[in-house]
Amino acid sequence: MGRRRPLPRNPTAPGLYDCANALYSRPCEERLVLLRRHKYILAALAVYWPTLFVLTHIPVMAFARRTGMSDKTMHFLAYMVLMCLVWLAVSPYEKVRWRRARVWLVLAAVVWYGAFDEWLQGRVGRSVDVHDFMADLAGAVAALLILSLLEFWQAAPAVAGIVIVTFSLFSRIGYQASVPWLAVVFHFFGYALFSLAWIQYARRRFAGWGVGWVRWAVAVAVPLALLAAVKTGGLFVQRPPAMVDCATAVGGIVAATGVSWAAEWIAALRRGGKAGQGERSPSV
Questions:
Q1: pTM of the model as a whole
Q2: Residue 29: what pLDDT?
């Protein structure tokens, strides 16, 4: 299928037209992938932001205290993820460029929300802490820095890896701790999400490299290497690894790899079916 000609450039909105030309100059199938990515980002933001709002306006749950993680670290990670989702919802196809007003508007919106969120906590029986707000601001700025250096499929595994490393080394989330069910959820879904993001990045970065089982072995090797590095690092900060945690993380990696493989297989079948229909159709 051919490519569309670039749209006429509008000097009053260069960023918008650069983004549009980058999108519409791609083949149709790739444009559908990009549009689907935007929908997934919006859906994730629609779930994450209200959940974050609810969690910050109810009494601190006992299991959150037993994790042993500083609330400032939690604020930092929460707003780093929030800012990533907000920016990608606004501008899903380009990096952060600090000279553009859009970046500062998005940052201002998240900062004002963080200030309002902290003020509102004082009205629902929770404490107001300016240090929490500063941690929110630091997390938001860190997210923009990451997104200014990395594009979407590079930033996704990077952010997931940061969250995994931070929770693993700076909290007591582990099966041997007082919240074993939280350790199972964290290790399974944390490593599954990292694996999904890494596999998508590797598929684009190393397109055509390796065949069959070799490519999938490489795809699994990086999440397993992250798991090994995290558990080894835990030995130096008095976080000894638990076999249940490791097994759950491996289960998440295997599940993510299986889902990715099945998705590729189904997509290949659909492409083959469409190609076959095209060959059988009479020429006009």
A1: 0.78
A2: 47
